[in-house]
Amino acid sequence: MRLATLDDLSACGHAQADKNLSPTKRLSITIPSFHVKNVYLIGIGGTGMSGLARLLLTKGYKVSGSDTQPSPTTFALEKLGARITNKQDGNGVNPETELVIISAAITEDNPDLMAARSFSLKVIKYSQFLGSLMKEKKGIAISGTHGKTTTTSMVSTVLKYAGMDPSFVIGGVVPEIGGSSHYGKGNFFVAEACEYDKSFLYLSPHIGVITNIEEDHLDYYKNIEGVVNAFAEFATSIPEDGLLVVNNQDDNIKKAIKGAHCNIETYSMDDPFANWTATRLRWDNTFEVFHNGSPFGEFGLRIPGVHNVMNALATIATCTFAGVERQSIMEGLATFNGAQRRFQIIDSVNGITIVDDYGHHPTEIRATLRAARERFPEGRIWCVFQPHQYSRTKLLLKDFARSFGDADKVVLTDIFSARDSEEDKAAINSCILTNEARLQGADALYIPHIDDVPDLLCSGLMPDDVVITMGAGDVWKVSRSLISKLHEHKSKESGDRSQESRVWTHNPRLMTQDLNGILQPAL
After folding, report:
1. SS3 category, 353
2. Which of 22, 213, 386, 470 is the most buried (most CB within 10 A)?
3. Residues 361, 315, 290, 284, CA torsion sign
């Protein structure tokens, strides 16, 4: 594995200065091979950062880092040998550290980063580091507002199944291919291309994918035009002999790719003029694929939802261009069980199914709940949603409120803060979202503390019910706690619907915050 010399890294400067670089200069930054051994990652528990940490650990690097929240991800990294602190107070950084890698969420006033600066340590962004790795191979960068993790996982799975031993960094864990990252001997490097902070402009892909473009990260971009412009820059980064695979059903993508000078292939569920199309989606999740109007084959997935068929189409187009045989693509996709926290079925107890999902954008919520309704047509769907970021919740409030249509019951917890200002925190809360969701017809209840949610669910759940915990924060804890409680009370019946109704609407212990006035219009 080749990384970068400290002399080379010094040319990259501080992360704060990088934000001011023009797109051309951002793309021209190169980080050749390096031989450092002691690496510190600030924000090590993040989706991409944790994959990078794992990759470094498996290659024998001494890895340490910090994150504000312990999680199964950080626990797993510690088992691999990482030294992790949950206090970003600057004490974890020491002068012996040779390289500091920071996530896009880390700001200049972060105590760990300030400590690194005080020791004059070399600091580089995660996306820059990822870009340096990608330059060593033929890059495949998966971008889009939604579907990045699943599509990256699918592509990596198919390439590995085909014997091509790809390198990959995924924002999720895929057990069948060894986890969230791997540095292989093959020619391809597959990675998620995150648009936040224009991070994907540091990558140098030969193949790019854009799954969709919607309003998100508006704390950075301010409006949808800013988001589209960033994707337009990403599209122009694909070389002329490369390929850009795009969702033909997305109008914003059509705007973003106008300046691209590479080969472009489109995919769609309903546009017969797209290069890749899927039809005849059946109850068993099999479907027919056509390429330029000609039959390409029958494919099947183990994970539900039309959105995952779309992800599969992007995967099929990408892997075909990469030289994978059609049969290997079919068989590779058929083995794919999904990434962890992407419609991940955790357990089933007394006929109650518990699912965990990372969805934290209105479109993702709608797609996941629709997939749940298709997968479990007879069961009641309970959605436990923890909003992620005050700014996102404020800017997309109406869309969030309309996203729970396929859920029978909705439980909303307090907002998980990330990169939020005090102004954002003062402007929105989950009470307001609960009220808006009720006005849209959702049977919604606000439970501030996630620790109280499992008790509520245990009191109201019945056989054939499905509970989906959703969000990018720590809502995953609810599913694990609920499973534990259901196993503890396995011999007890869940109760009848009248008891559920009393618990749902009149349990003052669970309603730990006075909602009078705030929710009155919807009561």
Report:
1. strand
2. 470
3. negative
Is residue 192 among the annotated active site residues?
yes
Of the candidates 148, 160, 394, 409, the residue annotated as catalytic is 148
Among candidate residues 164, 461, 159, 433, the one with its CA nearest the CA of residue 315: 159
Residues in a beta bridge with 355:
345, 468
CA triplet 264, 269, 271: central angle to 5 degrees? 65
Select which of 47, 149, 393, 413 is catalytic: 149
CB 412 within 8 A of CB 446: yes
**Burial bucket for residue 222 (CB in 10 Å: 0-12, 13-18, 19+):** exposed
Paired tokens of 481: 């706690």
**By C-alpha distance, which of 409, 426, 391 is closest to 470?**
409
User: What's the pLDDT tens digit per position in 338-359?
Assistant: 777 777 888 888 888 999 988 8
Instruction: Return the axis-axis angle of helices 326-335 and 306-321, rounded to nearest 10°.
Output: 140
pLDDT tens-digit readout, 130-169: 888 888 899 999 999 888 889 999 999 999 999 999 999 9
- Chain segment 210-225, per-residue pLDDT in tens: 999 987 766 667 788 8
SS3 167: strand
CA dihedral sign of residues 339, 340, 344, 348: positive
Residue 307, pLDDT > 50, answer: yes
- For residues 367 and 407, the answer to whether their CB atoms sit within 8 Å is no
Task: Quickly count helices (H) and strands (E) in the chain.
Answer: 21, 21
CA atoms within 13 A on the CB side of 117: 13
CB 454 within 8 A of CB 461: no
Would you state the structure tokens that stand for residue 391, as one six-digit string?
């700014």
- Please, are residues 192 and 153 in contact by the beta-carbon 8 Å criterion? no
**62 belongs to the catalytic site:** no
Eight-class DSSP state of 414: P
Write down how long the chain is: 523
Helix 126-135 with 47-58: angle, nearest 10 deg: 50
Q: Which two tokens stand for residue 373?
A: 């309704």
CB-CB contact of 242 with 265 (8 Å): no
Task: Provide the token pair at 343.
Answer: 């419609």
Q: Which is the catalytic residue, given 145, 152, 192, 394?
A: 192
Secondary-structure percent of the chain, ordered helix, strand, coil, rounded to 5 = 40, 20, 40
- Closest-CA residue to 384 (of 462, 302, 442, 304): 442
> What distances in angstroms separate CA 355 from CA 127, 368, 394, 396, 430, one per listed residue?
31, 10, 27, 24, 22
How far apart CA 111 and CA 62 sit, in angstroms, is 22
Tens of pLDDT, residues 381-437: 999 999 988 988 988 899 899 999 999 999 999 998 877 788 888 899 999 999 999
Predicted model pTM: 0.72
Burial 500-523 (b: 16+ CB within 10 A, else e): beebbeebeebbeeeeeeebeeee
Token readout for 377 is 């047509």
